[in-house]
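Note to self: keep these together.
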Amino acid sequence: MSDNLEKIELPYFTVSGKPGFDQDGFSDKWMKLGGCGAVTAMESCIYFDIYFGTRLCPIRLFSSEEDFMLRRDISRKDYIYFSRIVKPYLRPRSRGICTTELYIDGFEKYIAMAESTSEIDASEKRKHLSMKALSGHESFETAEAAVRKQLSLGYLIPILILDHNNPVFDDYIWHWFLITGHQFIGEHSIIKTVTYGEERWLDFPSLWDTGFSEKGGLVLFELG
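Structure:
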């Protein structure tokens, strides 16, 4: 069956030349330690502004529109500026943003604020970005189907992994990151991830099977 399913890989953008932002580059110590949730929300906003025409980011990020459209690159300075706006909605805390529900609640409040203050013509119709959770307790088959459906629509996917028993995924423990691609290599289901300013392909079933009872999950976007 996998032989009939094509590779899906979304376009992205860069921050000072890297795919997304490396949270180790924050000067704010709390964002450096626990800003991954905010980073995925910010990069989702940037992504949907670029490729779907939403208006969720400060206009400053796209102030040089012609240059940005050519390079799809955002400066670190402008990214840090954006992070200060988003931080109150998805702030680092003692256990992090440790559930998809907590993430969605904060992100939806940010979106409501951004949409209410967006400088667009009142007659210009803009799609509203909403989201729902898919629990890490769901089967791998359910998660894989959801990932392929989202990617086929052109939507990237925030994912939260909590504890994991496989040391291969140590960089992803208690961490939010983004899924931007999927493919099969033989019978292996592989996802493309963006985090810490890097893109990597990971074995999806191994990642999903954390071996712990406390789970994270996926955040699935809808535009309407």
